[in-house]
Amino acid sequence: TPHIVIAIDGPAGAGKSTIGKLLAARLGALYIDTGAMYRTVALKGFRLGVIRPDHPPEPLIPEQEAQLTQIAQATEITLAGDPFHLQVFADREDVSSDIRLPEVSRYASIVSAVAGVRSALVAQQRRMGAEGTVVMDGRDIGTHVFPDADVKFFLDASVETRTERRYNEQRARGIECTREQTRLDVLERDRRDYNRAVSPLRRADDAIWLDTSTLSPEQVLEKMLSLIHHRL
Ligand code: C5P
């Protein structure tokens, strides 16, 4: 069977996971949410007291970086279920809902700047991607994890659209938040993801750039399917 890798990168709220799931379902591919892996390390770091909410979380000191790297290396992260009922396990504990909390989003973007954390998770992602046809969603999939991916997409949208999507998503999960707080979180995460030293978020030269601001998920999906068929 052909083994195809489709990379989807872009900032928070650009539609990567919504579209990635639809695309995986249509292609009969495995959907791999790499953000969930960084979130899991952040959640564990928070629970173990490596990241402390009562301190300014940045900059991390070398000892924290070493502890977070150790967590990334030692935690068995499992992504299970079909694309629409994705479950995330950390050493067999179901962390699917805890990793979506807004503070975990923020910590994930801090933790993901640690080189040791990235190399541990990237190694795992490469193993997952070797298992079959995959749709992998993240920030550095087309640039670093799978630079030879068969098709690469870079999804983007305006800050307003991305804020609105994140806000609705959080409200639907029962998370208390305001639009303004959500907008600040999105901007803060953009700043970290675009500016970190290791594998910053950027479009790979050969990635197809799509602005999803004014498109429905179905419209984005149709565009991507036709581009994929054209390329393969
Ligand atoms: O995609 P999601 O919002 O779940 O990702 C959470 C955070 O994890 C991002 O803000 C980013 O800092 C980090 N991340 C990353 N590289 C990836 C996926 C996520 O640095 N491939």
TrEMBL record:
InterPro entries reported in the protein's UniProt record: Cytidylate_kin, Cytidylate_kinase_dom, P-loop_NTPase
Binding residue positions for ATP: G10, P11, A12, G13, A14, G15, K16, S17, T18
Chief location bin: cytoplasm
Domain Cytidylate kinase: 6-229
Catalytic activity, EC: 2.7.4.25
Reaction(s) catalysed by this chain's protein: CMP + ATP = CDP + ADP; dCMP + ATP = dCDP + ADP
Record flagged with keyword ATP-binding: yes
Organism domain of life: Bacteria
GO MF assignments: kinase activity
Subcellular location: Cytoplasm
Entry keywords, A to Z: ATP-binding, Cytoplasm, Kinase, Nucleotide-binding, Transferase
Record-stated family: Belongs to the cytidylate kinase family. Type 1 subfamily.
HAMAP family per record: Cytidyl_kinase_type1 (MF_00238)
Protein name (record): Cytidylate kinase
Gene: cmk
